[in-house]
Description:
Distance between the termini: 67 Å
Helix content: 40-55%
CATH superfamily of the domain at 295-322 and 446-556: HAD superfamily/HAD-like
CATH topology of the domain at 295-322 and 446-556: Rossmann fold
Radius of gyration: 33 Å
CATH architecture of the domain at 295-322 and 446-556: 3-Layer(aba) Sandwich
Amino acid sequence: MSYMKRANDFLAGPWMTAVGGVFLFLAFVLPRIGYPEGELLAWVCVAICGIPLLYLSVWRLIYNKGISKISSALLITIAMVAALAIGDLFAAGEVAFIMEIGAILEDLTVKRARKGLHELISMVPATARRIVDGKEESVPVTDIRVGDVVRVVPGETVPVDGVVMSGETTMDQSVMTGESLPVDKAPGDEVYSGTVNRYGSVDVRVTKEGEDSSLQRLIRLVEDSDKNQAPTQRIADKWASWLVPVAALIAVAAYLVTGDVVRAVTVLVVFCPCALILATPTAIIAAIGQATKHGVIIKSGAALEAMGSVDTIAFDKTGTLTRGTLEVGEVVSFSDLSETEVLRAAASLESRSEHPIGKAIAAEAERRRITLDECEGFSASAGSGVEAVIGGDRYRVGSPAFVFGEGVPSGKASEVVSRMRSEGKATAVISKNGDAIGAVSLTDVLRPEAPGVISELNSMGVKTVLLTGDHREAAERFASVAGVGEVYSDLLPEDKLELLRRSGSKVCMVGDGVNDAPALKAADVGVAMGAMGSGIAVEAADIALMTDGIGRMPYLKWLSDATVRTIRAAIATSMCINAVAVSASVAGLLNPTTGALVHNAGSCLVVLLAALLYDRKYPGDKKARRSLDDDPEAPVVAGGGVYAP
């Protein structure tokens, strides 16, 4: 059977199909220039294109279940055999050739790359630092058991799920939650496998091992979503369940009424859904070609068709609606110092810190060209803050708990910090000799094109939703600025997956992180930020935006809608041509050869409709709007996260 399949695949390939087309052309031309025996060359096309067709129809009859046994391949095989039975070799070769052309075009657009898990798997450390009797030993992660204690040093990936036993640090949990801010960890806090230790060294007691760990669960979510994706059935095959019996009944009726077998065979030939088969792949090829020019990579025709029926678009927050980087949003003074002096004091200390918030404060001071002061006696408390002496005065910068632990804050300080927290902003407080002198808020930055994109999608009748692992306050503030209609916050990857599964809508998920991969695959359509998104997110998605922004989402929705309309128009046109051709065949106005030419004309018309789609212009490009994918100016600020108290 394997030899037969390999031979079939060889014959069905584009090169052999092209050879068959050449012989079919010669079989048509030679008899008309005085070489009637040239018609026999059509046998080459029948053999090359007809054998794979026969193989496919028989395979489906044997292995498919129920009505799916009846396919477009079966109908065309019947027409081919009938044409051979009456000696019309050209008609037999023509229907087989057109079928193979359609199959090749479709394969070019609907063959989807396997969704790789290499990036996720590479995140699992091979070894861990296990602590036994106070001594550190390197062991394979597979040897780690629940109850063991492992040490994770700065820069390492956490190998297991567990609880911090000793030490303080800051963890980058974006792989699991997509949170834009790192999360501070102290004894008693949970840590997850696959997250990255950014700051201090911690000892972790293992609570989950092997397949039960968070990262392994995330890998299984991606695998399971892939398995649950049902293959898209071709439109021609969906319709073949009634096309085959209808064609057979009309052909039999034509023979019984007229007694002319040629009319019956002609009905079968013109009823072949060749134009129907070409309608979908040619329109999709044209649309994918246009999308590529606009920086949108569409991996499959199925995704493009599905996007046309989407009524809800769900956005991840960090790195998708936002740039995924922290920036200083507000500087507030609690004393007679100016805001610039508060920022100078904070940046002077934080310039020596490795914490992401510290780096953002130092970067803001550099942007404002503020000259920093020299620090003495610098020290850092992992996950809490930093302190140093400047000009004889001791300064602290860090979380409210770290700074306010020195003394009772003023009423204004307490009020400002509470407000910043309620707005979902990260907050760093600055103190001088034990007195709080100011605070700096930091936020993730909304992409400048986001409000315009959301507004345009809403005007197209698409509901927009925000799915994020960030806190509720930050998520809601963010959604209000962007104009997103619904908000779901504090979500883990499995939470996003569950929301999509029970949404009841046709959903497109847009994301960029590894934690978005399961949702991207579970959604009806997954769109990844290809220019900056993680490899696993791009692999898991059906469509990738190759620009650093979401400005092309309205274009993608418009193109998908236009493609579906073009396909429907092509199908309707081909069916009308078939109906006229069948009537003409029953009346004896067409024979198998002329019937084949007529329905060939229908196929050409379908291709022409697709070609027009390739050059169609997106109306949104003519609008004066702010949705520019690479606009680096005028950032819109919204909530980010909280610098842990």
